[in-house]
Design a protein that fits this description.
about 400 residues; single chain; about 70% helix; mainly alpha; 3 strands; 2 domains
């Protein structure tokens, strides 16, 4: 009798302990992921200053001009990331249509008087602050496709018609970016994000493996034709020949040393000069007007020159840690929508890192693309940190 009463008295306390455990479980956050992002941001600020101080002194008489601009964007981005990390990620499902249509609309605004031209490229909007619509489209497509796949289910991922329809939807913002902003790299990333999310969700990988095989085959055919003379001149438009010149410059950069191969050659000189341990932080000579856009697309070459192969490998390893944490969060997400959001962020960062390093090392034709969290660019940092905020919120929902 006494034992029975004692058990009854213990039950509320037991329930209270269980409630505390649940609250602790709900408060979980992937701090390894957060640490990797903070490390990359701080390292990026150091390298932006190192790579840009000479150019900033010449152009603006202020060696910290680019650093201060990047620091402002990073500070705003961190605040936004922390706020987004506290918003239930299911909220973004309600914004899917707006995110998709809004992204396309912003890209179209580039051809209006709101469009800004820099370095001969019209890719930005003047909305009080400079905004690059392609960066908005990357986040918009992640949200839209995570929602589309969840709502469509096997109708989307399990049939050829559903896959084709989905890729067609991805092709609209991709085409707008390519035609309106002439930004090949961003177009590749936007389409690649959608393709990867569909690939991960599809029960039939064979469709996508065949598509990749066909794409690789066509790419190899184009490279072969271009490398064997001007067979396509008079057949394809002059605008396309401009792209083919980039392929020629990729194959034989020394033959285009004064034009399209200049940036690539200077980048390779920079990498070669760094050796194993580099010249030392701030000691790059190629950043002194030799490597164009040293603080932007080619910042990885300055990392190689100043910190050597050791520094370059360390940066790559930090990106691998970040991507590994995305995989952990995606695999343990409470539902499919959360998992797909993180898969989309994984795809965005992985594709962009691979493309940037491939361009800098001349593994693929030169196309302007930044290194996430490290290259100079306010819009890029802001929207990348918004994506990190979403991933962190998904991690907060994991029960441990």
């Amino acid at each position: 009798m006494i034992a029975g009463r004692r058990r009854e008295l213990d039950r509320p306390a037991f329930r209270q302990r269980e409630s505390v455990k649940k609250k602790k479980a709900g408060a979980y956050m992937d701090y390894s992921l957060l640490f990797a992002v903070i490390f990359l941001l701080l390292f990026g600020l150091i390298m932006v200053y190192s790579a840009s101080s000479y150019e900033a002194s010449l152009k603006f008489s202020d060696s910290t001009y680019y650093l201060k601009s990047q620091l402002r964007a990073t500070a705003i981005g961190i605040v936004v990331m922390l706020l987004v990390a506290r918003i239930d990620y299911h909220f973004w499902k309600k914004t899917a249509i707006i995110a998709y249509i809004g992204s396309c609309f912003l890209i179209l605004l580039v051809i209006t008087p709101l469009g800004i031209t820099r370095n001969g490229a019209r890719r930005w909007l003047n909305l009080g602050l400079s905004l690059q619509p392609a960066e908005v489209a990357k986040l918009g497509l992640i949200i839209f496709f995570a929602t589309l796949i969840c709502l469509g289910g096997k109708t989307i991922t399990g049939t050829i018609r559903g896959n084709f329809f989905s890729l067609l939807l991805a092709g609209i913002p991709t085409g707008l970016i390519l035609v309106i902003t002439k930004n090949m790299s961003s177009a590749i990333i936007v389409f690649g994000i959608a393709f990867f999310m569909l690939f991960i969700s599809s029960p039939k990988y064979s469709y996508y493996l065949i598509a990749v095989g066909i794409a690789v085959g066509l790419g190899a055919l184009v490279v072969y034709v271009v490398s064997n003379g001007s067979l396509l001149e008079g057949i394809v438009p002059s605008s396309m020949l401009f792209r083919l010149d980039r392929v020629r410059a990729w194959l034989h950069p020394e033959a285009y040393a004064s034009s399209k191969g200049y940036q690539t050659l200077q980048s390779l000189y920079s990498i070669g000069a760094g050796g194993i341990f580099g010249k030392g932080l701030g000691q790059s000579t190629q950043k002194l007007g030799f490597v164009p856009e040293a603080q932007n697309d080619m910042i990885f070459s300055i990392i190689c020159e100043e910190l050597g192969i050791f520094g370059a490998v360390a940066v790559i390893l930090m990106f691998l840690i970040l991507l590994w944490r995305f995989m952990i969060v995606a695999n343990n997400a409470p539902d499919e929508f959360g998992s797909l959001l993180v898969v989309g962020v994984f795809a965005h960062i992985a594709i962009q890192v691979v493309l940037n390093i491939a361009v800098v090392t001349n593994t693929m034709p030169n196309t302007g693309i930044t290194l996430p969290f490290i290259s100079f660019g306010g819009t890029s940092v802001l929207f990348l940190l918004m994506e990190i905020g979403i991933a962190l919120n998904v991690s907060r929902s994991i029960r441990v």
